[in-house]
Design brief:
globular, single chain, Rossmann fold, alpha/beta, 19% strand
Length: 126
């Protein structure tokens, strides 16, 4: 079961994303700020991070730059309005992709499938 860290300050969006991820067989933990998300990412194992680009304490691009100092976990930036410039900045900061914030199950499933290992390919560290 893929473990997903959702860094999202909107309670409604976080609730919907969590529900959809769980319906896809994932476990999801939500952190409402970049600071809390980075702390969780440093102490727990995740297969994927879904990072809002506009968070109350720092933007998702800055948070990704900080995360890349200690993890290689795939990070997908999510925003309601993704411009080509914003996508380029996210990729340059170390995001694996930047996508329109979607609440469609099939779109979320495509992201999870693309960035998390298949269940028979998961290798756990001893």
């Amino acid at each position: 079961m893929p473990s997903i860290l959702v860094i999202e300050d909107s309670e409604e969006t976080a609730f919907i994303l969590t529900h959809l991820l769980e319906s896809l067989g994932c476990s999801a933990i939500v952190m409402p700020t970049a600071t809390q998300g980075l702390a969780e990412l440093e102490t727990a194992l995740f297969d994927l991070v879904l990072m809002d680009l506009r968070l109350p304490d720092m933007d998702g691009i800055t948070a990704t730059q900080m995360a890349r100092k200690f993890t290689k976990v795939p990070i997908v930036g999510l925003s309601a309005d993704v411009s080509p410039t914003q996508k380029a900045r996210g990729l340059a900061a170390g995001m694996n992709d930047v996508q329109e914030k979607t609440l469609a199950r099939e779109d979320l499933q495509a992201i999870v499938s693309r960035f998390t290992p298949a269940p028979d390919k998961i290798v756990y560290n001893a």
